[in-house]
UniProtKB/TrEMBL annotation:
Gene3D superfamilies per record: Ribonuclease H-like superfamily/Ribonuclease H (3.30.420.10)
Stated name of the protein: Transposase family protein
Species assigned in the record: Cellulomonas wangleii
Start and end residues of each Integrase catalytic domain: 1-119
Pfam family, one: rve
Extent of the signal sequence: none
PROSITE patterns: INTEGRASE
Length: 119
């Protein structure tokens, strides 16, 4: 979503799979590893530590498709520290992430009806 000055932003969201309740949501100029960890910590500070997390295969979430280079990233290290199981979508299986896409689509449509934010 663009800001009033045209700067593009990415929305990072953690939500409960069962209830679809958004646990944490933050916008960043470019989502980086520390942003993922900070947003995840915000989600668990208010809602507790989950047993498992489901994410896509982006490098900010997992290095599992990186060909064995680099080990764990910051998010994977945080999940390991908290003993949280990490589950990822299978590549090219969009039905797995349908719930996530639906929540994000609803947010994008809602944001599109409002004036662009300054920050």
């Amino acid at each position: 979503m663009p800001l009033t000055d045209g700067t593009d932003t990415e929305v990072l969201m953690f939500f409960d799979d069962h209830s679809r309740f958004v646990l944490a949501c933050a916008a960043h100029h470019r989502g980086r590893g520390p942003d993922v960890v900070a947003t995840f910590r915000a989600a668990i500070s208010d809602n507790g530590v989950p047993a498992a997390v489901l994410s896509d295969n982006g490098m900010v979430f997992t290095t599992r498709l990186a060909g064995g280079r680099g080990g764990r990233n910051a998010f994977q290290s945080e999940l390991a520290r908290l003993h949280v199981e990490q589950r990822t979508f299978r590549p090219n299986h969009p039905t797995t992430c349908g719930k996530v896409e639906r929540v994000q689509q609803t947010l994008k449509k809602w944001l599109a009806t409002r004036p662009p934010p300054r920050t």
